[in-house]
TrEMBL record:
This is ABC transporter ATP-binding protein. Residues 17-256 form the ABC transporter domain. The keyword Nucleotide-binding applies. InterPro entries: AAA+_ATPase (IPR003593), ABC_Ni/Peptide_Import (IPR050388), ABC_transporter-like_ATP-bd (IPR003439), Oligopep_ABC_C (IPR013563), P-loop_NTPase (IPR027417). It comes from Leucobacter iarius. It is found in: Cell membrane.
Length: 328
């Protein structure tokens, strides 16, 4: 796989979020851990949403799907629909793949039945749903699919379980597949196989992917575009190759320097010095300023809005490119 753009420019939009924010009502008060998120994903495109733990990736994804935790509400607009050439709008179907399939798969259901159930939820008849389950197991690379369809989730390895989870997701015939750290729990060889599978599915089916990860080098293997999150905001967005070659935000540059080598000799993220701010007390101005070696007074009082810095590229840094080359 390469990071080259593979998406037709004219591919229709399937997901369009504008000014998305998340508000959480907690016992200790209300917080806004995510704000001002603009995201657009086209058919067949893979968008990576990357950032450290706690940056708001999962809440953003849950807000996009309107499945926020208790006490959560979203602001802004989310259009999960395809816009045809004639301008008509058709709702887009979405499915979700999690990090830990064992907790997502029903332990009392054979894996074939779990896939068939997902197909039946969109009206497929029982016999056809069972046949589809075996077919989907084959499509996601599960060997001996007829036999494996009768297995229980706990009988499968982590990699096979993740393939089953992807088959469950595909049974819903999604236009957009949301993946939340789907390979984080897997060893690097199996991780590469699952990424290759997701890449094949999007090419064969025109599936759009929203791929959430803390690991930029994983995102780099799969995605055409990347949105970098920090402290609940997108701080940089653009085509993957361009962002990697010349990060326009010092946080992206720091993430890049901390990312495991693309050859996976290193399997964990090296921490960036300092810690992200608490959503209960986000600072005014640039939220990365306290950890940024280029920050000055202007940064601490600046309005951090994404600014266009090139074709299809945006950064929230008021000095785009300040950290370029310094962290690497
Ligand atoms: N139910 C909740 N109650 C209180 N705070 C929450 C809740 N869910 C998320 N948060 C807070 O919102 C912020 C964003 O969380 P989120 O889970 O979206 O981050 P993330 O980038 O997905 O992190 P991770 O990679 O660890 O999942 C964090 O500071 C988190 O502590």
């Amino acid at each position: 796989m390469t990071a080259a753009a593979r998406t037709e420019p004219a591919a229709p939009t399937v997901l369009d979020a504008r000014g998305l924010s998340v508000r959480l009502a907690l016992e200790s008060g209300t917080i806004v851990p995510v704000r001002g998120i603009d995201l657009r994903v086209r058919r067949g495109e893979a968008l990576g949403l990357v950032g450290e733990s706690g940056s708001g990736k999962s809440l953003t994804m849950r807000a996009l799907l309107d499945v926020l935790p208790e006490g959560g509400s979203r602001g802004g607009t989310v259009a999960l629909e395809t816009v045809a050439a004639d301008g008509s709008r058709v709702p887009a179907r979405a499915a979700l793949v999690f990090q830990e399939p064992l907790s997502a798969l029903n332990p009392t259901m054979r894996v074939g039945d779990a896939i068939a159930e997902a197909a039946r939820a969109r009206g497929v008849r029982p016999r056809a749903a069972r046949a589809l389950a075996v077919d989907l197991l084959a499509q996601v690379g599960v060997p001996e699919p007829e036999r494996r369809a009768r297995d229980w989730p706990h009988e499968l390895s982590g990699g096979l379980r993740q393939r089953v989870m992807i088959a469950v997701a595909l049974a819903a015939e999604p236009d957009v597949l949301f993946c939340d750290e789907p390979t984080t729990a897997l060893d690097v060889t199996v991780q590469a196989q699952i990424l290759a599978l997701l890449d094949r599915l999007r090419r064969e089916r025109g599936l759009a992917l929203v791929f959430v990860s803390h690991d930029l080098s994983v995102v780099a293997q799969l995605c055409d575009r990347v949105a970098v999150m920090y402290a609940g905001e997108i701080v940089e967005q653009g085509p993957l190759g361009e962002v990697l070659a010349g990060p326009a935000h010092p946080y992206t540059a720091a993430l890049l320097a901390a990312a495991p080598a693309l050859d996976h000799r290193q399997d964990r993220l090296l921490p960036i010095p300092g810690t992200p701010p608490d959503p209960r007390a986000f600072p005014d101005g640039c939220r990365f300023a306290a950890r940024c070696r280029f920050a000055d007074e202007a940064c601490r009082s600046a309005r951090t809005e994404l600014r266009v810095v090139g074709a299809d590229r945006a950064t929230a840094c008021i000095r785009p490119g300040a950290g370029e080359g310094v962290f690497s």
